[in-house]
Design a protein that fits this description.
Rossmann fold, seven-stranded mixed beta sheet
């Protein structure tokens, strides 16, 4: 992601409708994941400004190892009070093998050229402990690639099946997968596929402070989706794709290929 967009995120991420709404959607996923761990070691790879990691730490009282390739983002992460900061590439993660219980990757692998996500996901699997969980969010559906996507150097978007296949190739077992940011999808499609070509819009950021009434209006659909997320529901299509996946145990260790926690272990 370019440095300009990092600055835009710093300015808007506390109040902008998209950031607030997507955080609300993710909390039920994390609530469900974290009940199986005692004092988990958590890392966010591609943490950007560190904003989500800071909210995670405040909510769950667990420190987060925050890794990013962009020094400007890491400087801001330190200002937010994050202590464990690592500068590194998601295709060569500078963390020890089997050292992490919960790994977060939010809108990161979409910045890799198509096909290079396999190396990153293999690294994610390497640093997770057996039975550890990856919570990943990616941009969804090529039809929704926009001028904002170009501005942020987004190189690919995923379908549910393509993300599933990539994760399973890397050694993960899918626990839950589904689309979100769905209710505004018709509006987004019209903007990206009709309005932007019609007006010959240039690549630009869509992150800017909005009037309160507009920010609230755009927040409302994501508040509904957060309620659905808490109920365990997903959507058949959407602008974002979220997945929780577990690192498989090795067959040679006498364990099943795919790990499913029993009720007493959750």
């Amino acid at each position: 992601m370019n440095a300009e967009e990092i600055r835009n995120i710093r300015i808007t991420e506390e109040t902008f409708w998209w950031f607030r709404g997507m955080r609300a959607i993710l909390w039920p996923w994390l609530d469900h994941i974290l009940i199986r761990f005692h004092a988990p070691r958590v890392a966010e790879l591609g943490c950007g400004t560190g904003g989500f990691a800071a909210h995670f730490t405040k909510r769950y009282k667990h420190p987060v190892v925050a890794m990013d390739l962009e020094p400007a983002g890491l400087r801001h992460a330190r200002e937010l009070g994050l202590d464990e900061l690592v500068c590194g590439d998601i295709q060569a993660v500078p963390l020890a093998s089997e050292s992490i219980d919960l790994l977060l990757s939010l809108d990161v692998i979409v910045h890799l050229e198509r096909g290079k996500e396999d190396a990153a996901l293999q690294e994610f699997c390497r640093v997770l402990k057996p039975g550890g969980v990856l919570l990943i969010r990616v941009a969804a559906l090529d039809e929704l690639h926009s001028r904002h996507s170009e501005h942020t150097w987004e190189r690919q978007r995923f379908t549910k099946q393509r993300l599933r296949n990539a994760l399973e190739r890397a050694g993960f077992s899918i626990e839950r997968i589904g689309y979100f940011n769905s209710l505004l999808m018709p509006v987004a499609w019209f903007k990206f596929r009709v309005w932007e070509p019609l007006t010959d819009a240039k690549p630009t950021s869509s992150l800017a402070p909005l009037p309160g009434w507009l920010n609230g209006t755009l927040s409302f659909p994501l508040r509904i989706e957060a309620i659905c997320s808490k109920a365990g529901w997903t959507f058949p299509l959407g602008q974002s794709l979220i997945c929780s996946a577990t690192k498989s145990y090795g067959m040679d260790a006498g364990q099943p290929k795919y790990f499913r926690p029993r009720p007493e272990e959750s």
